[in-house]
Amino acid sequence: MRLLLLGFGTVGQGLAELxxxxxxxxxEKYGLDxxxxxxxxxxxxxxxxxxxIDLSAAIDKIKNGKLLTELGGAFxxxxxxxxxxxxxxxxxxxxxxxIKSGEPATSHIRAALKKGMHVTTTNKxxxxxxxxxxxxxxxxxxxxxFYEGTVMSGTPxxxxxxxxxxxxxxxxxxxILNGTTNYILTRMEEGMSYEAALKQxxxxxxxxxxxxxxxxxxxxxxKVTILANTVFGADRKPGDFPCKGITEITxxxxxxxxxxxxxxxxxxxxxREGDQVKGSVNPQEVDLSHPLAxxxxxxxxxxITTDAMGEVTIIGPGAGRIQTGYSALVDIIAAGGAR
Length: 339
Ligand code: HSE
Hints:
By secondary structure, the protein is of the alpha/beta class. The chain has helices at residues 10-21, 23-30, 55-63, 79-85, 105-114, 124-140, 157-164, 179-189, 194-203, 212-215, 218-230, 251-259, 321-336; strands at residues 2-6, 35-40, 47-48, 90-93, 118-121, 145-146, 170-176, 262-273, 276-287, 299-306, 310-317. The longest helix is centred in the middle third of the chain and has 17 residues, at 124-140. Bound molecules: L-homoserine (HSE).
């Protein structure tokens, strides 16, 4: 199976590391022999190789501050041009998220699906804005379209709902959907400043390229919208839901909440109200005895309320290099692996 990787930042490198670590299990257990035939990255350079790019050498180049093009096979065009001109079986879209326009990722996904390439994306912009169009395009071109990593990184929330809870009606999904803000709130409670905690979240690869998207709640809002559209079958846009981030929560407000037996959490929620699907993102003071109060650092946790099963809760990583890279790996196995 030939892959194109679009974006070789935190997530792209995490996926490359996993592909190297898991070469034998992918072959032996899933019959998958994967070759990355193209990598496109705006800053790190773009290369192609029909015989397969040496991923270990590619990671080394980036670690040493070099460009991918030093490996040979330089590709002169844009990422979109690569999708249009290089033949592959699956495209992995991991470029930066732009929640307002969904670009350039949406154009990359459309171009790949039009060619009948399977697609997986970790990019929330296209999913929050154009999910139904993209799903239709995939169907029309008999391509598979996956997006597990767009909510809770590689923690299998979407697969859990689609596969394992198949047949249940989902009534509400509620929880902590952004790793960066939960990390910041955790560190602030320990006494760190907001600025230092945000810097750490960036260094650890949790934050978006423009971290405003995290702290103002837009990342959680994109995830709420993705859940509304993919799980609840709605056709909503991020702007349809009220959203408030954590920028107004001060260290003293956090200590004051603690003294009252409470802890601030940024809560995303999607629910049915009659025929309507509603959504919201806002910081809430959660009682320390509540299960969500114990979710610390970049961990996410979501409770799914269903008709047949009542409440089912899933807790796991919500961000991170390997954790988000893993979401693409699981989608690659779903697209091409024999199981
Ligand atoms: N910036 C996001 C977060 C990454 O902190 O949760 C995962 O979507």
